[in-house]
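Reviewers of the previous submission asked for a worked example of the structure-prediction workflow described in the proposal, so we include one complete record here. The input consisted solely of the amino acid sequence. No template or homolog information was supplied to the procedure at any stage.
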Amino acid sequence: MSAAEVGAAVFDPFEDGFVESPYAQYARLRDGDPVHHSKLLHGWVVTRVDDVGRLLRDPSVSSDIRNATPNPLTINELERLAEQERASRTVVLMDDPDHGRIRRLLADPFRPREVARLAERVRERIARAFDALREQHGDGLVELDLISEFAYPQPVEIFSEILGVPDEDHPQFRYWAQCVARTVDPILSEAEREVCLKGLDDMYAYLEAVADEKRAAPTDDLLSNLVHADDDGARMTHEELMAQLVTLYMAGHEPVASLLGSGTLALMRAPDQLARMRSDPEVLRNGVSELLRYDGPNQFVRRILTRPTVVGDVELPAGEVIYASPASANRDPRRWGDTAEEVHVDRPDAGQHLQFGAGVHACLGSHLARLQAEIAFAAIFERLDDLELAGEPEWGNRMFIRGLNLLPVACRINAGRS
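From that input alone, the workflow returned the following structure tokens.
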């Protein structure tokens, strides 16, 4: 019996086993109710690859929550945005023309050529991280948590360095980045939200002070570049700049950290594919695409219809809120065939996954995320010998971003190839 034949086609993130693997539920939805109205989310959960791709590419579909027909979730969010108005200035919640204007001002440092220049700095930072792990744990067979000791801190460290944040402040940014990431989930208790918003306020205050310094005395880093970004005389306002910096922090580390954890776990559970990645460096780039397809971090993208739209076989009015699922689309056998639920690192069309979105809102930082992931996975394969699972992984319970909180592994940390 297939996963799609077990249970009802209902979106329920509280279902037993959903946190560990939501994909059986997504399969039921794809087969039984691919455009599913969720009472919990007051919107439509869309799970089939063609529908998700079409929505992400449709320029009439909005990212601005103000275009939604009011419901309890949207009303609550608008109230929060009114209290935290700067948060509404992030590019991910904008439509054109503001979206296009801000995106042009952000674009230069994230172009492929500019990102490629960061490769050596990223390699050095990751090499130092493994050297420190070897010094801490020794060179024999050891057990460690790959999330807390490598996968989570490293992307924060790397992005902080690129941004121009001093090393001594990086640990603080790890905490703030967690706070920012939590605020995007639609289901969050008031107590959690208050803690996260306090962290967000502290992060804003820090970045405002550093931005003022860079404005007066520019240095060779991303923050200086963004403070002085100019597009034919167009500049970001102070509020817009702050909103983009916080967004970039979340987008610059969270998906990479999640991918390093889930991807390593997927490979340990498919040892033939792990061996393939280890033995052939030429497979690395395609293998990272396959890991993004198979169990990538971005589970849902929220959009709002601005005109009556047929989604699948359902005609929806303007103002409806859509939760399109790249994660489900990337496992859809209608696109990926009978092996959709398996990892194949040499899958020829793996690069056509939807993890980085599509259309005008396609991820601006995708090249930087991929660079970090490729270098980090290469280092994992090179520096960790006899790698295997050493206990039960623990998944985070967030709805929008899927990732591990704990990944216990056993390995030998070698000194690196000379």
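The longest strand covers residues 384-389. We consider this example representative of the routine output the project will generate in years two and three.
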